[in-house]
Every structure is written in C-alpha cells, then in structure tokens.
Specification:
Layout: H1 4-19, H2 35-47, H3 69-79, H4 92-108, E1 115-119, H5 122-136, E2 141-145, H6 151-159, E3 163-166, H7 176-183, E4 188-194, H8 206-216, E5 219-223, H9 238-245, E6 252-255, E7 268-272, H10 308-320, H11 328-352, E8 358-359, E9 369-374, H12 383-399, E10 405-410, E11 426-433, H13 443-457
C-alpha cells in the first residue's frame, strides 16, 4: 500500500522544480480550491468507498494491479502541464519520453529497430495492429483461438476483415492442428497468438506457430497485453519460455503497461518489427505538424489526442525499475507467479485428498492466473452443482474480505473424469489473479479465507 505522506512530499518537491520553468512569466489567474472544493473532494472520496480494495493483497479477483507510487507521482506531476502527445506543439518533453519508453519496451522483446507508440489501452493497440494487417492484405482473414480476447473478432468486424475462431486445446492454447488445417486453405493472412489469455493466462505456442509460418507465409500478431512482461521471468515452464523466447520474430506486439507494468489506466502500447509500416499512417494536418521537422507521434498513430502524462509515468517507472531479467521488476512478476503456483498446489492437494472440495484443472498456471471448480465432497459433481457452489463460495469469500472472480470456462480444461457424463460445455469456476508481488507473502491469509468460505458454503 502507498504511503500518502511520502508520496505527496516527493511530489511537492518535484512540483516546485517544475514550476521553475515558468517562474519568469507574469502571474496569471489560477482558480483556488476553497472550502466548497474540499467538501466536493470529501464527497468524491466517500463515493469511492463503493469499490473493492483493488490495491490490497486480499483482492485477488480481476486484473487490477495498483500503479507504482512513482507512476502516480509522475502522472500527477505531468498533469500540471497536461501535455497531449499527438503533436510536438502539445507535448514536447512528454513525446520524447514516450519515444524512450516505447524503445525500452522494444528492447525487452529484443528488437533493435521498431515502430511503435503508446495507446489508451490494449483494445486500441490491437486495433492498430490488425489495421496494419488489413492494409498489407486487404480482405484477408484474421484467425485467433477461442481463448483469445473477444476484442479481436469485434475489431475485425470494425475493419471489415473476415475473422475465424479456432479451438483451443485442453491447456487453453491454440490448437495447432486446427490452425494448420485452416492455413492450408489459404484464406488466413494474420494469426493472432496470445501470450497470456485474460481468462486463464494460457500462452499460445508461438515457437510452433513460427514453424508453420515457414510453410504457409502469414503474418503473426502477438497479443501480449496481459502477459508480455513475463518475458523477463525466470520461473516459467519450458513450453512458456520457448513461446516468450520467440517474441522477437513476431510481426507486431501489443502490451499493456497498465496491467503488469505498474501504470495507471489507460496505458497500452503497440509495436511493429518493420518500421516501414509507418507509410500506412501517413496523413497531413493543416495546423498540427508545423512546429518541428522531428517525428510527431500523431503521424504514426490512429489516435489523435493522447495523454502525455501516461508517457511521463511509464518513463519514470522504467527509470526506477528497468526491464532487467532478475531485476526488481522481474522479481515482482516472479513472486506473483510463485503465489499462483502455491495456490494451485493447495487446491490440487485438496482435490486429491479425502473429502475433496475443489476440482483442479489439467494443467497448473502458465502465468499467474489460477482457476478451479468447486464440488460437494459427498456428491458426484455436475457442471450445474459445481457452478452453483462456486457462486456461493465467491459470495461468502467476499464477506470475509477475500475478493475472487468467477469465469465460465470449458469443461475440457479439466481431467475427463471430473464431470462424469459431461465432455462438452462450460462450468462456472473460481478464478484468482495473483498479480501483486505481495500475494506470495499473503498466501496463508488468502488460503485461510478460502477454506473458511468453502466450509461455510457447504453448510446446510
């Protein structure tokens, strides 16, 4: 949790230094905040009570990770300027910082050259990547697995591109046999590989998809909005490690610093390995690009106005926590993954012990997302009874200040004998995203509350 006094002390010092840049200008009117403003702020703070405690380790539900204090401070500092990183007129310093920050992301993927920029989030970043794919192969189809983010099919529809959904296997990865069969038909120009699906954190076999590209010649876009930073992590499975090691051969990559990158919303990024795709962005503006012959970020982006404060926050965080394998930033990711593995171990031990209450999936977590189904220890599980019990555990855990999530997931992700007589369809599972570095130290309190919530949910 952030120490507010320390945060605001450091911010005040930095603000004084920033104010020196305009100290020579004549005084100008600035609205003051009075008692009425204080009352409004107090009301806003009270209204914000109607939230879950997203920053606390006992919140282990959705993909919500608090921004690092330096990101909060840098964002607030930049907001006193309120730069717009569309053109250099509106964001000179912050545009330069964005270029440096995006270059740091590219280096993390082992790219010595690239074209890229920040976006408002992964959705728009993926839109730009698929837009470029459509420019390179007009009218050709996009393919992704049924575990890929739903945004890809929606984006393809917006862009007027055909979209094909491929099945995933029992680990949630794209089915490679189905992919090759589709590629052989010659209709697919771009395959979306997901490194970190948002439902279960599965990692598509990018290394094997690259082998298919040698035979069928298609474009590979990697949606690493959630999982991209795990390329720095040392405690991955061999299969996941091979996938991340292949990232440098992708054609485009999307990553969201506002997920694992410790940034405020919204901060996404899109990167292209071939800088010449910038030709598709070329456009003119009658009043925007005259202040400098240097690159204006609006010239390589579909978005116009973009918050320069996002670039300042990301740049500052990268300076404090560089993207170094084994460094402090990477260790935080490794800690979250270790927490996920430990939670899964406890669930699997319960599932295989006497009076099992949980049903463990076929495979352990590939990143830091854990999912499992619930069962009554004295009854054969069915998808319906398991789903109902999961809902009761979810509600009861929240009463104990443990906040999980629910997800409707394919039955095939569980061993065949899990639900006798049921081989297709979905089951509502409990899901936990162990993305905070503190989750490993909090695994015992989390487990104790889950155990208590489950016991209480099984009572008549």
């Amino acid at each position: 949790m952030t120490d507010p006094q320390n945060l605001f002390t450091l911010l005040a010092q930095a603000q004084s230094l920033l104010d020196e840049a305009t100290a020579h200008l004549p005084s100008a009117f600035a609205p003051a905040l009075d008692a009425e403003a204080q009352s409004i702020l107090n009301e806003a703070a009270t209204r914000l009570h109607d939230n879950y405690p997203y920053a606390h380790p006992l919140y282990a539900g959705q993909m919500l990770k608090p921004p690092h204090p330096i990101a909060r401070a840098a964002y607030s500092l930049a907001m006193s300027v309120n730069p717009n990183n569309h053109a250099l007129d509106g964001g000179r310093a912050s545009s330069a910082m964005e270029i440096e920050a995006v270059a740091a992301l590219a280096r993390m993927f082992q790219w010595s050259q690239h074209l890229g920029h920040l976006t408002s989030g992964g959705t728009f970043a993926n839109l730009e990547a698929l837009w470029i794919a459509g420019q390179l192969a007009p009218g050709q189809a996009i393919a992704a697995s049924d575990q890929a983010h739903y945004t890809h099919s929606r984006i393809s529809s917006v862009l007027g591109l055909p979209f094909v959904t491929l099945p995933s296997d029992a680990t949630g990865r794209i089915d490679l046999a189905a992919l090759e069969s589709l590629l052989a038909q010659g209709r697919i120009s771009t395959v979306v590989a997901t490194l970190g699906t948002t439902a279960i954190g599965s990692v598509d076999s990018l290394d094997q998809i690259l082998e298919l590209r040698k035979k069928y010649l298609f474009r590979i876009h990697v949606d690493a909005a959630y999982g991209g930073y795990f390329t720095l992590v040392g405690n991955l499975t061999p299969a996941s490690r091979r996938a991340f090691d292949a990232l440098s051969y992708a054609d485009s990559i999307v990553i969201d610093p506002h997920k694992h990158g410790l940034q405020p919303y919204g901060c996404g990024a899109v990167l292209f390995r071939d800088p010449t795709v910038g030709r598709f962005y070329q456009h003119d503006s009658p009043y925007t690009y005259f202040s400098s012959k240097d690159l204006h970020l609006g010239e390589i982006s579909l978005e116009c106005s973009r918050a320069g404060a996002s670039a300042v926050a990301l740049w500052s965080t990268q300076r404090l926590l560089p993207y170094t394998p084994g460094g402090a930033f990477a260790q935080g990711l490794e800690s979250g993954r270790s927490a996920a593995l430990e939670l899964h171990r406890r669930i699997a031990a319960d599932a295989s012990g006497p009076g099992p209450r949980f049903l463990a999936p076929l495979a352990p977590p590939q990143l830091d997302i854990v999912f499992f189904a619930a069962r009554h220890p004295q009854a054969a599980p069915t998808p319906e009874s398991s789903s109902a019990l999961a809902q009761r555990i979810f509600d009861q855990a929240a009463r104990l200040d443990l906040h999980l999530a629910l997800a409707s997931l394919p039955i095939r992700l569980f061993p065949p004998e899990t639900f006798p007589g049921h081989t297709t369809g979905n089951v509502t599972c409990l899901r936990s995203v162990m993305m905070k570095p503190e989750h490993l130290a909090w695994i015992d309190p989390i487990w104790q509350r889950l155990d208590q919530a489950t016991t209480q949910s099984l009572e008549p």
